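Narrative summary of target 7.
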Amino acid sequence: MPSTPCAICNANRALIIRPKNHQKLCKACFITLFETEIHNTITANFLFSSGERVAIGASGGKDSTVLASVLKTLNERYNYGLNLLLLSIDEGIKGYRDDSLETVKRNAVQYGMPLQIVGYDELYGWTMDQVVSQIGKKGNCTYCGVFRRQALDRGAARLGIKHVVTGHNADDIAETVMMNLLRGDLPRLARATSIVTASAASDIKRSKPLKYAYEKEIVLYAHHKGLDYFTTECIYSPEAFRGSARTLIKSLERVRPSAILDVVRSGEDMARLVPEEVSGGRKGGNDVLVIEGEPGAGGGCGSANGRTSGGEMADMEKQLLQNEDAQDKETEVTIKGQRHDRNCKGSNRTPKKLPKQQMGKCARCGYLSSQDICKACMLLEGLNKNRPKTQIQVSIEEEDNSPTLTRRMEGLTIMPNQQT
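Modeled conformation, tokenized:
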């Protein structure tokens, strides 16, 4: 049986079937097309300006690693004139973040980028391991998400940088749209769908160059480029609400491959209906999606903090490695299903009046907040109130033999050589 030629060059053998449109491509054309679509997203939305210092939020995972690699390539190819560096957050999760940070350190050397690491412990006095031990695994992602967003801004401010880019992809955006719909949180939906988020109350803006890139295509790009990235999922994330939204999105994708981009676009359309004074910033409805290499297509380079349940991405990576040496096989991501039309009906319900949201600064820490006290400070207040205050008696001998003894507990009193 003759091999299938690449749909673009018609010369090389097709090795890849794109998840979003089933287009059959050779390795070289896929890589070039992927990079070109990211470049078009960047230029169409005016994400960067020449001479700008940009921090890449680096976790060591596939999304941030691909983002760093692509930005370095495009910066050199198209002369963006950017000064790129890596900014990592250490949440304090043993067996996960400590290992992934080693990958980030290798990436910093590989890409020739400076690296700055900011830890929860130094910013908040808590690691995520300590938070989970205090509150349990239910709701811990709420703490981590709030702390991480603030830590990125604080790390950027420490470096004197006013632009942070993150590796959120289309799967992430679709999941966020679904989560905020289920929660009825339109103001947050409006902010989350925007490719750029900024406010007059903050000097730091964030952008998502991979907003329209499918998670599976990011895995394919990382594999065929031979990038060095960390694949283990966070040990606390299976309990997150996002996992339920992710499962729903993946189910929709199996039935309709364009569902991910459809959800993203629907979220952008809904964001345009939310007044700016309610959303608190730029809305996502004006973002520009540029289609590359797909004449007549109805979608574009579309497709999250890119984690999947059930090890789907890990299975995909294993399959790619197994097929690498097989010359007579194609590397395929096959999605079986039947495309069907949807009949949408309008609603005569009176829209609920949304509260006006004004962004200001937290009275305690000075961070961007729509309330007098930001959410991070409120969470920290609750954690600190529940710190152990019991008097603990420790002998000198016990103290010397316990190097891991924590002295930072609130109200801790060391009483040497006292009998109980």
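The first helix runs from residue 27 to 44.
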